[in-house]
Amino acid sequence: MESSPRRRLASISRHLLQPPDRILSNGPRPNQLSADSELLGRAPVVIGGMVLDIQAIPSEEPRPGTTTPGKVRYVNGGVARNIAECMSKLGTKPFIISVIGADMAGEQLMKYWKSTGLPTEGILKLDGVMTPVVSNVFGCMGESVAAVASVDAVETYLTSGWIERFRRNINDAPVVMVDANLPPQTLEFACRMAAVAGVPVWFEPVSVIKSSRIAPVANLVACTSPNEAELIAMATVLSPQAKFESINLEEIKGLPVEDLFQMLKPAIFSLFDKGIRLLLITLGSDGLFLCHSRNLDFSRNNSNLNLTTDRFLGQLYQEVNNIYYNHCFAKGSSKFCAFHFPAIPAEVVSVIGAGDCLVGGTLVGICAGLDVARSVAVGVAAAKGAVESENNVPDKFLVTNILDEVKEVLSRVKPLLL
Fold it and tell me: Which residue range or ranges hold the Carbohydrate kinase PfkB domain (predicted)?
């Protein structure tokens, strides 16, 4: 009899292959949940930081050298925590692996997490350790002006030994998301554990500085979600012999997205050359680029979710999966394809958490069995909710709102020439 890892690898291989002429299908996929009952009830695993965000919001433009009137708020945050919370509010039950201290910040984070009904077994709570805290100062338009992060607890105490305790969760997961706050040795350990089990790994770069931690694990990573600056930093560390042009979106505002894409192509191919199969490149108000291998598909068989157990998720899947759209590949000989997804107009309150909700929404779609394009469109809708919320993750999502926004996004997706 085949071993469990071998069966899983065979299953994943089946899921990633489909006819090469189209990935972004123009019709709904059948519900094949019962075809792979081995994966029912499995939870996606999210590994990384749980952080208390201290957010300073001025009532006028902040000026150096003096105080500025405004509001200071305490908000539950952290890249991994935000992604997991977003996934939970879209109907999944992710399993988070993280660390906090036995202090006021840690108590606030743990109290909220328990209130969601999500598992807490993966959260390491330590006496004498300071819970990760990030202090953000915003501008009047909701943009981050400056931020200082104190995340030593993640760097020091989120160890390979703690990850090892949850090997079964990782082996059984449909996807593992790791954020770059993890210390390099823990990051490599988690990625390798998932890869051996045939579980796709999603790498969230966190920041330009920490994005370089992809270097030793790039061959173990399936998907990653950098902004344009993180993409350049990742390409530079992965291909040090090459030279990549730095890009400032503010300086080239108004540049056609096709031209921006051409500027980023060398860095994109640098990551593809290292084995990464899906790139979600965020561009702020310009939307995002989705780039992936032509034979990549997270099919319905790879679902870990029984859609009948969560009414919200079941409705979301059925409604989004029934949206018809018609976007073929741009003509070209490359084995990769690329698309531009527009941003949805929003009333900006805070941009903190938008990127995390983009990833969380995309992962929910993938795990539920939606194709890649529909999954990313769900992520864009979730990001819009974050932008319009004071919290990093909106208090709730409405299926009707998400559905309208997914339709709008998919109607405006443009194929790009690689």
Answer: 45-292, 339-390
Q: Categorize the per-residue pLDDT at 185 as very low, low, confident or very high, splitting at 50, 70 and 90.
A: very high
Q: What is the mean pLDDT of residues 225-235?
A: 97
The closest of 117, 96, 100 to 108, measured between CA atoms, is 100
What's the rounded Cα separation, in Å, for the pair 329 and 113?
42
54's torsion region: left (phi>0), alpha (psi -120 to 50) or beta? beta
Average pLDDT over residues 180-208: 96
> Distance between CA atoms of 355 and 386, rounded to whole angstroms?
9
Length in residues, the chain: 418
Q: What share of the chain is helix, strand, coil (3-state, %, to 5)?
A: 45, 20, 40
H-state helical runs in 218-304: 228-238, 257-273
Q: Which two tokens stand for residue 246?
A: 């730095």
Does an H or E element contain 149, and which? Answer: strand 144-150
Rounded distance, CA 60 to CA 44, Å? 42
Distance CA 311, CA 308 (A): 7
Arithmetic mean of pLDDT, 349-369: 92
Measure CA 155 to chain center: 20
pLDDT, average across residues 194-212: 96
CB 199 within 8 A of CB 173: yes
Closest by CA position to 104, among listed 54, 65, 59, 70: 54
What are the distances in angstroms from CA 315 to CA 81, 82, 358, 370, 375? 25, 23, 20, 13, 14
Q: In angstroms, rounded to a whole number, what is the distance separating the alpha carbons of residues 268 and 230?
A: 11
Q: How many alpha carbons fall within 13 Å on the CB side of residue 397?
A: 32
Rounded to whole angstroms, the Cα distance separating 136 from 71 reads 12
Q: What's the CA gap between 308 and 88, in Å, rounded?
A: 16
Question: What is the distance between the alpha carbons of residues 37 and 307, in angstroms, rounded to a whole number?
Answer: 13
Residues forming a β-bridge with 202: 177, 223
Our separate counts of H helices and E strands in the chain read 14, 14
Distance CA(408)–CA(220), nearest Å, equals 34
Chain Cα centroid distance, residue 180: 12
Whether 221 contacts 201, CB under 8 Å: yes
> What separation in angstroms does the CA of 12 have from each of 8, 16, 405?
6, 6, 30
Structure tokens at 92: 């999944």
